[in-house]
Specification:
Length: 272
């Protein structure tokens, strides 16, 4: 499984690449806001354009997602082309993030411009990461429309199932892959019992039909979810830096290290 870092924080991105574990980067408007506010808060003057270029250089040779801000089909295509033109020349690694469905007023509206933008940009040889995917059906349509990547949001589906059922939770709380029972009933959202179940169903459907899009397990909140994404065959997991760091930790590693260090005899430490 490839690992993308889900961050717009340049220091986190550099660190993940220095560790040799990053195969790409995903950003979104919220991550960019957070990263820029952090640097401005530290007294730096910053232009988002030069900041994005810095990210693209660090990630050179691996894909970086930049999300559009427009909501109409025409607007998203125009902006996607503009972003690609502005930034792809830096390191030839830009893909454009397009929401599968950009409706803002009503989830059931007939505003379906996302999928049209996926098709148009893909047809213009601009790789698309189709984002905000919450059903395997959305993933199937995005892949058919030509998306290079589809991003099911595992953590947010877990949040949704818990909220719908009045279950309190913390953002990084583990949600069982096989689902959560309440009052003897298995909770679900139209046949999806967990975020990892959503990822697994997306992978299975795309692979059943040899569709080329890669599934990015997104919105991952803890290390166990990353493990489960790998076990269900996600092609990519995009992971926040804190979770990547947590993946390196275990109490017995720490304890074992202390014991080994205590046992180093001088002759061994000064081999000649
Ligand atoms: C990545 O492409 C997504 O934008 C990101 O994983 C969303 O994560 P969140 O649900 O933790 O905000």
């Amino acid at each position: 499984m490839k690992i993308f870092i889900d961050s717009a924080d340049i220091l986190e991105i550099k660190q993940a690449y220095e560790w040799g574990v990053a195969d790409g980067v995903t950003t979104n408007p919220s991550l960019i806001k957070m990263a820029v506010e952090k640097r401005v808060g530290a007294g730096e003057k910053i232009s988002i354009s030069s900041y994005l270029k810095e990210i693209l250089k660090v990630a050179s040779g691996t894909p970086v997602s930049i999300e559009v801000t427009e909501k109409t089909g025409e607007g998203m295509v125009e902006e996607g082309k503009k972003l690609f033109k502005m930034f792809n020349s830096v390191a030839e690694n830009v893909n454009i993030k397009i929401p599968v469905n950009p409706a803002l007023e009503d989830a059931d509206s007939t505003h379906f411009d996302g999928i049209k933008a996926v098709k148009e940009l893909s047809n213009s040889d601009i790789p698309v990461n189709c984002t905000l995917v919450f059903t395997p059906e959305q993933a199937l349509l995005a892949a058919k429309a030509g998306a290079a990547f589809v991003s099911p949001f595992a953590g947010r589906i877990d949040d949704y199932i818990r909220k719908q059922n009045n279950i309190e939770f913390g953002k990084s709380d583990y949600f069982p892959q096989d689902g959560f029972e309440k009052d003897g009933l298995l909770l679900e959202d139209n046949g999806i019992v967990s975020g990892i179940d959503l990822v697994a169903q997306c992978v299975e459907i795309l692979e059943n039909y040899d569709l080329e899009a890669e599934v990015i397990a997104a919105s991952l909140r803890n290390t166990r979810q990353v493990r489960e994404a790998a076990l269900v065959g996600a092609h990519i997991a995009t992971i926040p830096f804190t979770v990547i760091a947590d993946m390196l930790k275990h109490y017995k590693t720490f304890e074992g290290m202390k014991a080994f260090i205590a046992d180093i005899v001088p002759d061994y430490a000064n081999l000649e």
